[in-house]
Design a protein that fits this description.
mainly beta; six-stranded antiparallel beta sheet; 20 strands; ATP/GTP-binding protein
Length: 292
């Protein structure tokens, strides 16, 4: 690594525009697999609970891998520039052609492994600070989103059971903004502010018998007057009894797929994630036919 950086320095010569140097402590939280080049980073606990659905607001993404959002010397990760933006460069540096000191300034950019190097990069005014993606994650965490409440017929109870072949109805029971959306929140730091709006786009019902039913919308709550009709929006039929299942019941879960649209800090994007309910036992039997 050192030999490659020295060779690069030799090629760059005395240019002040790009200054590369070895920074032994720059990537203290990251290790690199020398054979695969895989980046493995250990995030510091900053005491901020970012929520399990987004993986925490202190973790950013680089080349499909998680890295700490805070880098060496208090620098902050920027997905736009692909580095941790750190301290301002010396005042005697010269702006690039067509730029002025009012437009921006040179800042140290620390690069993730396998480069583990830094250079001065021209950063536009107002773009020094937290990555808007991090603020979007904080906004999502503040929503305190939950899995849906399962509505289902047959009901889940020790003395209740459905029948093989009869319609099963599934729906979102008593939907709220935190279980189905839409819900909006914002987060700010310094001059950067991000707004985010979250909605459930679909729900995948794992029926416990090897079948998964993908439903859009909240589904239709069952009512007695529907009788033996099939659900018009989200339903299933079991082909066999549940007596051979653990506790004699199919374990049903519902996974809601959240889509969050965010904008701010001169950027916009989409964050998607899933929330899954605890398993709900549903018993299925067969109708007994009496003959004489």
């Amino acid at each position: 690594m050192l030999r490659r950086l020295l060779a690069l320095l030799a090629m760059l010569g005395a240019s002040f525009v790009v200054v590369v140097a070895v920074a032994p402590s720059a990537i203290a939280d990251c290790d690199v697999d020398e054979e695969t080049g895989e980046v493995v980073c250990e995030d510091e606990d900053d005491g901020n609970d970012g929520g399990t659905h987004t993986g925490g607001s202190s973790t950013c993404k680089y080349d499909g891998k998680e890295i700490p959002c805070t880098g060496p010397e208090g620098s902050v990760w920027s997905s736009k520039y692909g580095c941790w933006i750190g301290e301002r460069g010396p005042d005697d540096l010269v702006p690039p052609e067509g730029q002025t000191k009012e437009d921006g300034w040179w800042h140290v950019c620390y690069f993730p492994p396998p480069g583990s190097s830094w250079e001065y990069m021209w950063i536009l005014t107002g773009e020094v600070g937290i990555d808007p993606v991090v603020l979007a994650q904080r906004a999502i965490a503040s929503m305190n989103l939950d899995p849906i409440e399962i509505g289902i017929v047959p009901e889940s109870a020790a003395n209740r059971a459905g029948l093989v072949g009869l319609p099963v109805w599934m729906w979102v029971d008593q939907p709220t903004d935190v279980t189905f959306g839409p819900i909006s929140a914002s987060a700010s730091e310094g001059t950067v502010s991000v707004s985010a709006t979250a909605n459930v786009s679909s729900i995948v019902w794992d029926m416990g018998d090897g079948t998964k039913v993908n439903c859009t919308g909240k589904g239709t709550p069952y009512a007695d007057h529907y009788g033996k009709q099939a659900s018009p929006t989200c339903g299933h039929r079991y082909a066999k009894m549940s007596d051979d299942q653990p506790d004699g019941a199919y374990q049903v879960t519902a996974t809601s797929h959240w889509v969050v649209e965010w904008t701010g800090g001169g950027q916009s994007g989409t964050i998607e994630f899933d929330l899954t309910t605890e398993p709900l036992p549903i018993r299925i039997g067969e109708a007994q036919v009496l003959t004489q």
